[in-house]
Amino acid sequence: MSEPSLPPTTEDLLSSASAGDSQLYQRAAYQLTHAGLNPRLDEDDQVIVLTLEQGDDIVIMFDEVPSATMRLFGQWAIDSSLPTDELTRLRAAMATTEECKLAKVFLSDNTVIAGVDHLIHPQTDIVELVTVCISAVLFAIHTWHEAMGMRLDEAADPTS
Question: Where are the beta strands (DSSP E) in the chain?
Answer without folding.
Answer: 40-42, 47-51, 57-63, 69-77, 104-108, 111-119
